[in-house]
């Protein structure tokens, strides 16, 4: 498997106009520079149409934002894990709050990602779903309370108990799973708080994507580690 | 709008292992060469993760295999028409047999594609659905009986009535819509039959993607025009 | 087919707490009484779990709120047209704004409903979707602009052009289709306006379901005819 | 909560023609008689449209085959847990192999079912999904390998390890969850084997629904306990 060194900052660029095409590439370049300058791992999740393009143009690890459980073959317009791999992905988000998946499909996608050497990051919404996710053995779980996503109010401050509660239950069930947190993260201070709660990093989006100077925000974020 | 000159051969590479990543690029290069050599328009529909990569590397028009009706913004892992455009797409399939869409969403996606200058190709499965599609005013309708897809038995021979019936009903309702046909097309003779039935071209996949020599198949296909 | 006499008032009770179980039965009884007293056809669309129960207890025609395109057999928890028929339904809504369906599935469900003798009422959201729907040959089309649903602002006043535009395009494509309108209807005056625009009746929900005296509202509604 | 006494035989009548409307009621009556004669708990899961009708006509506990995660209100054609309760349901299947649900929705539906006093039976497909399910705290988990459903080859013989493995992992994570098994069950011997593996009963469908004499099959099934 592509081993992703932790702590890690995972930047999900979502489907913002500020992250489409060449703008997505510029964000990836910013991640690349910040990793070179800081030594801290950053990962970018490009828009689906941009994954291969960005993976060919940068050295920053690219994760798919989403993969679909379809068989290789006649599956027009679906995003297969094998295709993500062939396009240059090193991993994938699974079950993001904006793209929820069926329980049985999550299980199958985690297994299939592992067979392909793709790092799997399962997104969860509360403590018991994090616990359930741990039983499915993803590489990482990112706990993100949906109500805080995009708010700028960091989960590490607004709801630290959901982070520590998830960490505890996840580790009880499967100690190998790396735990991240997300939702509302936008500063180095937020990252610092997340790390202090015991996580191995953060997953974030708008705080960087919609910033006037994304690289400056990324530099601030890694300073929290 | 990106005007696509007809007659046209549209190659949907689906999610085959033979069309992922660099193999998808090779198929696009073959299309490009065949168009240069023959003067006949070819279009490629790359795998979702490869669209931007292939659009940057070739001059063949790229159509998305599928687009999703989500708002620009927080829409992780969805394939937006705006993102297809930014990645270099000239058009898009809508409602392929392997990725059916809701009626109201098809209507909205056709409208949104037109506003972006993306050529829309609505896929349909029978005469009355083709007629319904015509009322939604896509640029093109590709009639493809699902039971013939991937069989190698061409719709133009197996079920010519569905092609002529669709053509008649579509033109009655909306004379501006260009009609293609698909399913089972793999030879120049199949293309010739499709043109003789009155269509402006074909949509095909496995006949080229899984061929030992895709370029030779493409050359045979354009010879039918 | 169960012929539904027009003009007609179709009451969709949705999933309100005021229409569950015995409360749904009371609404059906109110429809029954109003039809007896006024001679105007009313139809009720019970909650899915209540359809058989209410169909057995009243003489008012019951329409399913929704049916699913699954084969008879191993289809746990899906609502089949054949099951609606066996439970006593006389018809069904298809593609309600709160339960949109795929284009190809709508086509297949209309055909299957007709074969079973179920009256099909296709819900649409704008003029071109109404036109597309006409090509699919349902028994009735109910045009309901989603933005007016539940507002109490009647479509017949807020957007009469969408009603007359739909009527015109539907009749051009398929003169056999009966056209209704819905969204925001709550008084006899609204019904009168809908009839004057050329429709054969209305589809409504909250105006009756959430009323203190549903029968009184129903009596007012039929007075508009 | 409606306490369901174990061991239990849960009959899911699916969407077979043999279980629609009055035929579904006859199956419920057979369950009722068998429980009266044997003292063993049986439960029936009627077709969605029949739930209220059958719950009013029999004393056998009725479980919904499926519930949807929609808010009470404007949710046309969806099957709400509150509506199941109002129609007379004592419980519900969740995530049947033929109606899979999203992970986050399963979590929310289990919580909502408990608040309503509905017994929740979460269906799972393998050991790790059973383990994940246990973390979500349903009342019961029914492990059913999809490849055996409807085959007549009982899971208790074809794949006993999936049953014992699920039991072990479920109990490690949440000892309060009752474990059932299903798929291919059709005789008292199959039930006996399931009980001997440590389960508290079975979930089955076609073995009874499609039998010439459903009551005789039910009597045979309870004889295995």
Pick out its properties.
225 residues, 8 strands, 42% helix, homotetramer, 16% strand, eight-stranded parallel β-sheet, TIM Barrel
Architecture overview:
The structure is a homotetramer of 225-residue chains. Chain A is 42% helix and 16% strand. Chain A has helices at 22-38, 51-57, 81-87, 103-116, 127-135, 155-158, 160-173, 188-196, 206-209, 214-223, and strands spanning 8-12, 41-45, 63-64, 91-94, 119-124, 140-143, 178-182, 201-204. In chain A, strands 2-1-8-7-6-5-4-3 form an eight-stranded parallel sheet. In chain A, strand 3, helix 3 and strand 4 form a beta-alpha-beta unit. The first copy, chain A, is globular. The model of chain A has no long low-confidence stretch (mean pLDDT 95). Chains in contact: A-B, A-D, B-C, C-D. At the C-D interface, helix 2 and helix 3 of C face helix 2 and helix 3 of D.
